[in-house]
Amino acid sequence: MNLGGLLGLTIITGTGFLVDGLFFKPRRRRNALREVAAFDVVHHEALKREAPETLQARERLMADLMRQGFLLRYTAGLFPFVLMMDGIWALFHLPQILP
Questions:
Q1: DSSP strand E in the chain: where?
Q2: Which of 16, 23, 30 has the alpha carbon at shortest distance from 65?
Q3: Where does the chain have alpha helices with state H?
Q4: Measured distance CA(47)–CA(53) in Å, rounded
Q5: DSSP element (H, E) containing 69
Q6: pLDDT tens digit string along 8-55?
Q7: What is the b/e burial string over 73-93, where b = at least 16 CB atoms within 10 angstroms of the residue's CB?
Q8: Backbone angles phi, psi at 85, to 5 degrees
Q9: CA-CA distance, 29 to 22, in Å (whole number)?
Q10: Using CB atoms within 10 A as the burial measure, which of 14, 16, 26, 34 is most buried?
Q11: Angle at Cα 91 formed by Cα 86 and Cα 93, nearest 5°?
């Protein structure tokens, strides 16, 4: 892969990473906490008894609500890997390019 393609990929995945961290993740967390609070109100008796199936359902609900979308999962998730590959590319190829 050439430098332009790798830098473009770094910019695209980095933008997804930042947008997720700054905008989408706090919104997902707020919505998830609101839904879990509604779940807690409905199932307060079972939660008080610490029924295992209710606790598991609560954890599953939180995990499902915090899950990223398909496109965002791959752009934001690939950013650290692409950034590492960018560094490796620079380590091996820049000494050959620069005099």
A1: none
A2: 30
A3: 3-19, 25-42, 44-48, 52-66, 70-97
A4: 10
A5: none
A6: 888 888 888 898 889 999 999 999 999 999 999 999 888 888 888 999
A7: eebbebbeebbeebeeeeeee
A8: -65, -35
A9: 12
A10: 16
A11: 90
